[in-house]
Design a protein that fits this description.
This protein is 48% helix and 13% strand. The chain is elongated and about 65 Å long.
Length: 102
């Protein structure tokens, strides 16, 4: 069997990739709710894929104007503006997907 030498390793590229991964992990850690249930975090993560979200204690703040309080259902949404009905609709869809998975 013929032996082939291993390709050269570009240490600068590896360091850059590591730096990006660490920054991403730190950024993602900021989106983990403090003291929330696994289901609440799953809902948050699903919503965050399509719109800006942040935690405000136990509440989710979507688009800086729609608040979703526990138990994180469309009925627990408060806010106003053109995005209100859209957030409720997306939340309903994500809840259906999560219920199918469990």
């Amino acid at each position: 069997a013929e032996k082939h030498p291993l390709p050269a390793v570009d240490h600068a590229t590896i360091k850059q990739r590591e730096k990006r991964a660490i920054l991403k992990a730190k950024e993602d850690a900021g989106f983990i709710g403090d003291g929330v249930t696994v289901r609440a975090q799953q809902i948050f993560d699903a919503l965050r894929k399509t719109m800006p979200c942040a935690w405000d204690k136990q509440d989710m703040l979507v688009l800086n104007e729609i608040r979703i309080a526990p138990p994180y259902t469309p009925a627990s949404c408060t806010g106003k503006g053109p995005a209100f009905n859209r957030v409720k609709k997306v939340l309903s869809g994500e809840l259906e997907k999560l219920d199918v998975q469990t």
